[in-house]
Every structure is written in C-alpha cells, then in structure tokens.
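Practice problem. Given the sequence and the SMILES for zinc ion, write out the predicted structure.
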Amino acid sequence: MKKDLISITDYTKEEYLRIMELAADFEKNPNQDLLKGKVVASLFFEPSTRTRLSFETAISRLGGRIIGFADVGSSSVTKGETLHDTIKMVSNYADLIVMRHPLEGAARYAAEISAVPVINAGDGANQHPTQTLLDMYSILKTQGTLDNLNIFMVGDLKYGRTVHSLLMAMSEFQNPIFNFIAPDELLLPEEYKMHLREKGIRYFEHREFTDIISAADIIYMTRVQKERFADPIEYEKVKNVYILRGKMLENTKSNVRILHPLPRVNEIHTDVDKNEKAYYFEQALNGIFTREAIIAYTLNLK
Amino acid sequence: MEEIIKKKLKVSAIRNGTVIDHIPARNLFKVITILGLDKIENQITFGTNLESEKLGSKAIIKVSDKYFEDDEINKIALIAPHAKLNIIHDYVVTEKKVVEIPSQIQGIVRCVNPKCITNNESITTKFTVVSKASLAMKCHYCEKITDQEHLHIL
Ligand SMILES: [Zn+2]
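Answer key:
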C-alpha cells in the first residue's frame, strides 16, 4: 500500500518518531542521492513560495528531478481541467506528488486517484502536515524530548490549522500541558478541547498575554489575520494585544523557544529576533530536513 | 378498529414485501430515489400527505416482493429518522424494524463547507458519523463537521 501523507493523524506516534529520527540523519548529512533517477511532481495550485522552495530544496538535496508548476496561471488548470484529470495524468509521469491546493480535501481526493503517493503541502484551511512534523522536529531538537512539555499557543487558535495539527500530534506524547492564549473571536474550537479532555490532557485558556508565559517550554505564535474578522473594529481591538516583545521573555525559562510557522506580520516584535529564545528562522531550516525525511519515508527509501 | 380499516383503505395491502411507514411527506420522493425504487420493476404503491400526530404529514410506501438489507434501508435514516418497516409475508407482518443512522454515509448529503473539494468537483461525498444523538458527520475529504442544522440532502 502506498503511504500518502494527507493529514497529520495519518501517521502513528511510531511514524512521528521515525520521521524525527530520519530528519536528524538528514540534518547531519543533507545531500543523499536517494531520489536519483526519480521524478517528483510539485503541483502548486495556489502560490506558496516558502513551502514550495522548502520542498524543492529537499527534493534537490535528495538528487531527484522536479516537474510541475508554481501557480495555476501557467498550467492547464486555467483551461478548466479538473483536479481529477490533472492528477491522473501526472501520476503516470511521476514517482511522487507534492501538492498544494486552495480547496479543502483536495489532497485526500488526489491520493484516491493517484497511483503514486501524495504528500499534502496544504489544502486550504484544512491540513498542512509537513509543517507540523517540522514543528515537532524543532521542539524535539530544542527540548531534547517530546514528552512532559508545557506548550503555549498564541493568537489565532480558531482558524490556525498549524495549531490544530500540532495539538493533535503532541497529544500523542506523555503528559503535555497546553495553554491557549487568544481573543474571544479566535478561541480554539470545541472539538479540539474535547479531544484533549478525552485523552485526559490538561489545558488552560487565557485572554491575556502576560507573564503566565514564564511556565512555557514552547511558545507557538501565530498570525492574527484581519480577514478572519467580520467586524474590522474587533480586529483593531485585538491586533496589538498578542504581540511578543523581547522584554516579555525576561522571566521565562531558559529552555523556552519561540516558534512561528512564518511569515510573521507584527506578532513577534523584531527585538525578539536576536534573543537566544527565538527559534523561528532555524525552524524554517528544519523544514528541509523534515521534508527530506518525509519523502524518503514515503517512498520507502530509508 | 375503524381507524385501522380507514388506514388500510388509503393504501392497499400487499401480499409479500415491505411497508415503509412514517416517512415525512416532504421527503417521500427523496426516499424513493435513495432506495432506487424508481429503477426497479416491483409493484410499488405509496400514499402521501397522510395525517400523522408525530410528523404532521407523513407518507407510506409499499413495495411488493422486496426485502431490504439493513445497510440499504439505513440510508434513509437521515431524512426519515422515524421510519418504521413492516416485513410482510402472505399478508401477515412477520417482522418490524426501525432505521438507524449508519456510521458511514456515502452520497446523499452535501458537505457544509463551500471550500470543500466535493462542492467544487464532481465527487461522491463521504462522511463518518461522529455523533448520532445530535447528528454530526465528518467529511472524509475536508474533515469539517456537517450537523443537523446544516443538513442538505443532494
Ligand atoms: Zn467536505
């Protein structure tokens, strides 16, 4: 059976750990010719330069060749070809499909059609599992463990898919504690809180972004996006409340690290960048190793 | 007794087959489509806009020489949750059944999410029922929940 990666919950805990192990190996030795003679389709039905470059770097470091498109403007999709037909065609050409699509569920559907494995590089607001695995790798690298961590999530917890996926994945590990900091308009959806309660995992919700972060091992920041708000006045009220500033880190634990899926807008002040607790740029680099690991695992090359 | 006779007059009795009662009148034709009754050769009689204390207005379908598998009949549970089946052999009711919401639903329902791939390309919808008490179905594709309030039958 082919190993697609569409949602973070497609992997078991053992598979998360296997990816972590492989990512560490690729970090030590990033250039490995495992994809020699193989073709990887990189299908970006909506532009996402950051994610595409990360994937294409990973593929290149593995010695693979890339076909595909960076946005629909240059593809047959603009001529009205269905996703079904595009995937049918491409899966005849390539050994693996990496795809990003603006519609939710598009990757799951593509995986059903495709004869070769599909890795989801984002389907609308639904899933972006490779981001979650690189977040986990960053956590493991900085904390030395994925167990017993106090994880603070800040900002848009309602629509932030990275937050939801990371929560699902980390809830598989020993004794996590979650602290959620969000405005009323952007609270974590009930289904995720229910999931935590069912697993007996402790969580706390806060409105204020204050010195409660002194207990944190990980502070996971997200963008508060204007388009999420029905009322622009509501956005104006909260947009500057959830900004992390250098001064706020004074009383935090020495091991705490700040993560952010990037790009940021203003939610992390630039005065945090030079703080040793800032980790978001290294986090992005970890994405290359993690994606190499996911590709190698998906194609049974390791 | 008189009541029973009156009811019998409304839709004539069948010798062998299945009677599906307590269908909301407005969903009669959807039930017919979902069960594929418009595509079979069996004798079918139905009555609709019959008085019902529970439903206000109900419909009843009698299908001769046809017995449904549970999987088949449970497909109508979303639009006729109170449906009752009478299995008839030689004019006698030999078994009574109620419908139950299945754990997987294919087709029948539209996904609530306008950004779901199933609402943008010709794909059969698929759901896993995560709650039967207060209906909640998780889309196999976009993973969003469709509930009773947003139920839209295709
Ligand atoms: Zn859907």
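Check your answer against the key. Chain B has a mean pLDDT of 89.
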